[in-house]
Amino acid sequence: MGRWTFHLSVGLGLLTLMLTCCYAEENYCFASRAKTCSECLQSGVGCAYCAEETFNGPRCDFQENIIARGCGSGGGSAALITARSSLEIQKAQKINMKIQQSQVSPQLMSMSFLPGEEKEVDVEVFAPTKGPLDLYILMDFSNSMVDDLNNLKRMGKELATLVETLSDDYTIGFGKFVDKVIEPQTDMRPSKLKRPWPDSDPPFSFQNVIKLTKDLNDFNSKLQTQNISGNLDAPEGGFDAILQAAVCTEKIGWRQYSTHLLVFSTESAFHYETDGANVLSGILTRNDELCHLDGLEKYSKDTKQDYPSIPTLVRILRQHNIIPIFAVTNHSFLYYQKLKEYFPIAEVGLLQEDSSNILQVMETAFESIRSKMSIQAEDRPKAFTTQFLSTSGSIAEYGAFDFKPGAIGKFKMQVKANRQVEDEPICNLDQNQKEGTMRVKPTTFNAAVNVKASVLCPVCDCEKTRIRNAPRCYGNGDLVCGRCECYQGWLSTFCNCSSSARGQDSSQCIAPGSTEPCSGRGDCTECGVCVCYNPEKYEGPYCQYDKTQCQRYGGFLCNDRGSCVMGRCACTEGWEGNACECSKSNQTCLDTKGGVCNGRGKCVCGRCECTDTGIEMTPFCEPNFQAQLGVCEATRTCVQCQAWKTGEKKDKAECDKCPFKIVMVDELKEAKKVLDSCSFRDEDDDCTYHYTAENSKDPAVKDLLVEVLKKKDCPPASLLWLLPLLLFLLLLLALLLLCCWKYCAACKTCCQSCLALLPCCRKGRMVGFKENEHVLRHSSLHTPFQETPMIRTGPPKGTDVVRWKVTDNVHRSPSHPANLIKPSPKEIIQYPISLRLNRAFSESLTRPDARDAEQLRQEVAENLNEVFRQIPHAQKVTNTSFRMQKNAGKRQNNAIVDTVLTAPRGNYPDIVKLVEKNVQSGNINNLKVVPGFYTVATDREAAGAIEFQEGVESIDVYVPHFAKPEDDDKKQLLVEAVDVPLGIAEIGKPSVKITIIKDQAASIFSFLQPAYTYSRLDKVANIPISREIIEDGNAQVSYRTSDLTAKDKKDYIKVEGDLNYSPGETEKIVPVPLLELGMKDGLLEDKQIKQFVMDLSDPRRGSRLGRYPRTTVTIADPPDAGVVAFKKGTHSFTSSDPTYNIPVVRTRNLEKPLSVAWRTKKGQPYDMIGGMLNFDPGEKEKNIVIDPKTFGTKRPDNLTLELLQPSPGTSLGERKTTVLNISDGPERAQMILGNSRPVTSPGGRLFSPGNPKAQATGPRNIRLNWDPLPGNPKGYKVKYWIYGDPEKDAEVIDVKTPQADLTNLYPYCDYEMRVCGYNALGDGQYTEIIPCQTLEDVPGEPGRLAFNVISPTVTQVSWAEPAETNGNITAYEVIYTPIDDDLKPVGAAKKVKIDNPKKRMLLIENLQNAQTYQYKVRAKNSVGWGPFRDATINLASQPTRPLSIPIIPDIPIVDAEAGDEYDGYLMYSNEVLKSPAGSKTPSVSGDDYNLNGKWDQSFLFPGGSGTRNLSASSSPMSTLSSNYRGGAGGTYTTETTTTYMTGPGGTRRQEFIGGGGGGLHTTEVIMRKRSENRGYTDENIRDSIVMGDLSAKLQSPGGFGYTGMQSSSQSQFSYGMSLSPRTRNLSPDVNEALFNLDRVLQDARLSPGVPDTPSRLVFSALGPTALKVSWQEPHCEKDILGYSVLYQLLSGGEPKRINVSNPAENSVIIQDLLPNHSYLFKVKAQSQEGWGPEREGVITIESAVDPKSPLSPMPGSPFTLSTPSAPGPLVFTALSPDSLQLSWEKPRKPNGDILGYVVTCEQLHSGGDLRTFQVNGDSNETSLTVPNLTENVPYKFKVQARTTQGFGPEREGIITIESQDAGAMSQYNMQSMQLENISQLPLQSNDPMFDSFFSDGMMMTSQRTETSGMVTRQITKEVVQRSVTGGATVTKKMFYES
Are 1513 and 1644 in contact (CB under 8 A)? Predict the structure, then answer.
């Protein structure tokens, strides 16, 4: 009975699940899978829980769903558990408009939210007309601003007027700043401290000069007394001044309810945090953000505190409601433009060089701030999001609120509590992230709405009353809130099913129509319930549904708008359809009136389906008038037919099709009040009719409203009968004059005189062409135009405009074949258009890269495109250029623009009319043009106009040649003067003919045919180009491909170049590489036909183009491969069956025949049989027929068939094999009663088990099943190993049942397995290899955690990728918490999520000084978050960042002191700006050692004291710095130099401190970049630095010390000198030598124009022998000219190089690679300055190889990419001061069988010989003892595996055995040992060897790297070093890495 009850409950549960799956995606209550009542209520708003015991539905669901399913129907209302939130407005005073200050209402409210709940509140705000204003001007007083200060002094009255204009209640103040009064920012010589410049004040940091005041006279008088000051470097200390001006509220005079504006005026950039540590000579503490103004109102802590950071300024100004206005000059405008983006509201204005426009800048900025008002929520807890809406309900963009001053404005505030934050339920957040008080206000307001918001996380009371061992749970669980919580080992709803036992009867687990229990995807429990192997993929009562097999749309599962549930798409809210492809919303179907499809269609699947009206419609079913040349032209015929029954549509049937009805009116509306006003002439009566068209204001009316004037304008009645008489009299007069002229010579002169007196016959102006004909040769045509002069005779007064036209090929008769072919009016052609601009021409317009040319080109394009929108199907103008026409009269200095419009051929008349109309108006939209000039051309005709200005007698007409390859050998153009639309001139000589004679061509180039088709399988499209030889010799032609539907670098690789033909050569082939179909295109059902074209051009050496100058290439996608597979995995037959019929099915590509071979599998104990199976077109299924007699007496119990060798274009499906189980038939059973069936081979050994299956059951588990062997075997052996490892290293387990569980495996790892049975005679035959991959697991903890200490409050933390990623890393999370000495938190933890897994660094600013922090980092993959790697560090105890180390670019920066909303506030360090290189007047005081902005070196040497800091950086990766200081007497000298180096190189940092006794203290820091080559690299991302420190006592040998180190990979140099007191006596020769050496070293740095290393080297396999190599363009300050790609076999061989001359191409395709061979690739970039460094990568294409040819891949075989790995991490163990032991692990993928290893050893700094060691054998771990080393010398070791395929990549490591007991190196024989790399080092506390090392004091530092894209782990322990210097103890405690 219990079993049936259980099945009934399971069935009901599954039914409920299936009923609810259709909306599981949008039902977050149900989707949360809440296990408890509290979890249910915390899932989101609206969730309810049913605690009724007898309830059978899902207990957690929306309240209405649970009630609908009957919860509480039994009368128990308490069974339904819900939760509610609250909203209370606590203070809501109405706005008083009489008070002139900003106000809001309500002022205070309290809200609680359930997760996911949203609340909306109406808010009112009031901005006064001229509210209170506090204006504080903060001005740079460095010497370069002297003219700016003088101008401001002169503007006293104007400034007063401006302030009074802005506000009636104002105050104004003034402050000044320069920089910190400390070296090297300020010249510290006493004379310069007193007066840095003539008539200047002493230097200072910041001073509040004038407190905010209303007395403008007092303000002006105090301003007049101010004098300029000065400093040394260009960046100024303005950030100090801004912070003090903000926090010193009382001293500055800020008022509480006023608008606070701070005008910051400078011409220089800014110093920011850490510049105090890195630029100044002293290390300064962090800025404490407090007010420090002394009695003189000066900043008193400038030399004791660092500059503030950018996040600090943003936060401080926001807290004090101060709006900055940056008024800066052009030198630093771009810097402050970027800085502005970080502030919620700020403005930047461009000052003139002398600040003469500062008042205009201030006024413009103030108006801009008031016009861009937006709403912001300050101090918002992380759990909430806010949105602000207009009163209409639409979301407002930034700056969109337009609250009118003096009126009450309204907006809506939406506050929402998220359900999850970064994939974590909101109730799991810290309390301070779930509640807080937000301040909501407009950006310019001080007043705000205070919103107390909190998240409500309800807890159910029923969970506190748990019923233990409840009877309802069969005693196997507890009853909690109505449901059973089962104990371990029990399953099902009522805990009555054991999870450990397997059912004997599996029939209840077999789905209808299936033969396998649980569909072969799970285990059947004794309760008859299927437990799926992979619940994330399979589901259903029989595991029959695959979550990846629902319908797709656009290649995406369920259109990415739903999830696959129970075999069907469960769409998200708002989507529907079988594949969620249709949107339920009609938002995409709304027309301009807000209606759906304009009432002329219906919205189907998010698109309008319009009814056919006969006219062109928009996508929203509105008439498309723009496609019909405007509203008037589109409505003309319909108006004419309805109003007057005339015109083209006068037929009633045609007129009824019009989409609108007209209204006859007596008077029309004004033109400006309607959409368009139209007038047309009616051809039937020659009258003009008028009408207007407009859209109806009534949204219900969809038609156009057309009103027609009842009265037409007709010409008045005239005396038409007089016309014949007048014509007769005029004819008679003409005849008489002609006779008089001819026969009366004597009176000819008289007649002429008389005629001249007549007005109609008076001699006037004539215009015409100068020549009758021009004859040109085709070879002499150098331009597309011919200058054809037109002249004017007569009085040259007034202006005449002449219209002209050109006709091509007028020499051809009308019956010529070319004239009989009429071109299609829909053909798309190009229209060259020329216009004369109303602006002068300049040479800069001819340079395409000139700024004014680009601006003008953009202006022309925008205006022309706007005008040509009226032309149907017209495209945007292109190829815009500018020129000047010489013979153009008085307009020849104007610029002429030439551009090209692409449009249909039939639009030529409309384009000409449109251009002429706009030109005559003088405006093309907003573009000013000169009337009277234009040219519009096609490929066979042209039209235009020229203008004769007053006094001009000759102008050139630019006539196009229309030169085409198909032209006749002799052709003529006819140029005609059409008319004179403006002026009184008459046309004299009306035309001129231009004859073009084509030279006889020596060669004719042509494609063989106009189109080609190639398949992607061809890989290359070979296009032949033919040459017809007329006169033999050399010839040349250019070719180039262009995109149509096929795209470059996606479907094919673009090619272009020149072809050179030798004498007698008639054909060349141009190969075009074709690319494989992309994954996204491959998933699309409707594939677009891919085409591109190749054009021939520019034939040279007497050649011309022939019949086919262009060919179209079609890329045919390979047809979908047919798939064949066995229908079933197993078949059962008996020995009495006459035949065995095994069905094979075929899917996809059914229209073609195909064939496939079959055979019995190898290794089976009988003769192999096989054959071919042929499918006819359309045939879906075919049977393999096997006659049992084939086996004779050796009838097997089971056998395996396999499919192989499918025909081309066919692939094998998943079921490539099938198992035949053959049992005894009745006759056979009788026959073998006395004989047992043979179950062993003739030798007695067992056959291999059948039907082996492997299934991953977890990240570390695989379950292997097989059919049991007959004959009672003793057991089975299973051996398994990691894919790629040799089988001989496999693990073997012994099991007694036909099942094995493999445990303790690696997650996300490929394994291979075999199974055999064994008996008394030994092991039987093994099965074929069974592959299986374990599931993903959470990643391990990240690798080494390193800190780059920049200052006591700023650090850069970095970490390595986890050693065990267990999948693909998707994100990292960093948490840092202040802690005390007991490691307990003393403050809030800050959390930062980094979504880019490649950015494994974080820069944290504003940490608390001298505060210990705990840092924790963890990684995330698709499974979830891994464990934390943590470290503890106090930055104050660490050495800070050296002078020359810049902030690493492009890494996230966070502000530790910011509010919670700043957790997501990420800046990037490459946006933190430095000062410009130069300025108009550099702010450097004194002229005795500065000449033209460059240093004079002489003052740095003997005598006096000086400091020099030089820094130059050509890229973020290169630095050059030096620092000289001279000391005297008892002072000491310090010098620090550090340089980053890459690859195997290193640097040394040395500090020399000379005391009175000449002592010298040295600190050496060995630094090395962690990894040179990685699998991926983001541009400008550099790995962290690992540092070890060595201290020793040295004597200064010669008065000064020098050290230098140069890195070849980055061409950087760093050097330093330290002068002791003895340096004063150096000779001038020595000083000169040192100075020259300084110059040489300075010039040795990397040139700024050399490219960086190309980044992101990516490999894509195109075939078993073809590879695509891609990279990203490197950073370079100059243009990239090209790339070089070098590749060669990793095992050696001839290198091959490919040069890429086109910098736009960043990939190459290589076709000639060998399969299964590793190649080394190197890519570098070139600029004008030379080649940059190389990026390296190693890759292998793995593919099956044909046994007959080792270098030829098997046809049709798959191919994959792999990277051979280097030997495992190197482990160093010090044996003595001069020897060590080196050990390593074997490579995971060794690129062949390992034969041995080669180990090389050399000194790191190029000293000594290279030593090589050979290590033979292939063991899992190998070691080598290396003797004869030198202590305190770094060595570089490389280990490389030697395999059958050659040498693999190298593993590299650097080691130094350092000792401090060498003579003068130390006063004591103390030694210490530092292990920077102890991840594999055998370190135990009771090991005597290490005890001796730690006590005797040898220090070993090591560092490992791995090339070829592999990642290493580095673990470094804390080291404490102590040494004695001069009797005092110095202790250094370093946390370089944890």
Answer: no
Q: Which two tokens stand for residue 1569?
A: 């970049």
Q: Count CB neighbours of 5 within 10 A.
A: 11
What letters, b where the CB count within 10 A reaches 16 and e where it falls short, cover 176-189? bbbbbbbbbbbbbe
Which of these, 704, 714, 715, lies nearest to 638 by C-alpha position? 704
Which three-class secondary structure string do you get for 614-666?
A: CCCECCCCCECCHHHCCHHHHHHHHHHHHHHCCCCCCCHHHHCCCCCCEEEEC
pLDDT given at position 1309? 87
Half-sphere exposure of 1271 (CA within 13 A, CB side): 24
- Is there a contact between 1278 and 1315 (Cβ–Cβ < 8 Å)? yes
Helix axes 146-154, 156-166, angle to 10 degrees: 70
CA distance 733 to 741: 12
**Burial of 503 (C-beta count, 10 Å sphere; 0-12/13-18/19+):** middle
Work out the mean pLDDT of the chain and round it to a whole number: 75
Q: Choose from 70-74, 843-847, 1087-1091, 1763-1767 the range with maximum mean pLDDT.
A: 843-847
Give 979 or 1559, the one with higher predicted confidence: 979
Of the given ranges (303-307, 830-834, 1715-1719, 1916-1920), which has the lowest mean pLDDT? 1916-1920
Q: Nearest 5°: phi and psi at 637?
A: -70, -35
- Amino acid occupying residue 668: L
3-state secondary structure 15-66: HHHHHHHHHCCCCHHHHCCCCCHHHHHCCCCCEEEECCCCCCCCCEEEHHHH
Question: Length of the chain, please?
Answer: 1938
Structure tokens given for 642: 């309805």
**Is-contact 84 368, C-beta < 8 A?**
no
Nearest to 1348 by CA among 1457, 1444, 1438, 1471: 1438
- Block residue for tokens 């800046």: 1467
Helix (H) or strand (E) holding 845: none
Residue for token digits 């409950």? 9
CB-side neighbour CA atoms (13 Å) of 105: 12
Is residue 1037 a contact partner of residue 1068, using CB atoms and an 8 Å limit? no
Q: Residues of 1411-1427 as b/e, b for ≥16 C-beta within 10 angstroms?
A: bbbbbbbbbbbebebbe
Digit-coded pLDDT (tens) for 1380-1433: 888 889 888 888 888 888 778 888 887 888 889 999 999 999 888 999 988 888
Contact 413, 436 (CB under 8 A): no
Q: Is the pTM of this model over 0.70?
A: no
**Residue 128: phi, psi to the nearest 5?**
-65, 160
| Closest C-alpha to 611, from 619, 602, 704 | 602
For position 242, what pLDDT does the model report? 94
User: Comparing 455-459, 727-731, 801-805, which segment has the lowest mean pLDDT?
Assistant: 727-731
125-143: burial string, b at 16+ Cβ within 10 Å, e else: bbbbeebbbbbbbbbbbbb
Distances (CA, A) of 16 to 22, 58, 1318: 11, 7, 49
Residue 1860 banded pLDDT, cuts 50, 70, 90: very low
227 bridge partner residues = none
Instruction: Find how far residue 117's CA is from the centre of its chain.
Output: 33
DSSP sequence for 95-127: P-TTS-S-EEE--EEEEEE-TT-EEEEEEEEE-
DSSP H helix total and E strand total for the chain = 26, 118
pLDDT digits (tens, 9 = 90+) for 1527-1559: 333 333 333 333 333 333 333 333 333 333 333
Please report the DSSP string for 954-965 in residue order: EEEEEEE----T
What tokens does 1243 get?
Answer: 């030798």
**β-bridge partners, 1145:** 1125, 1181
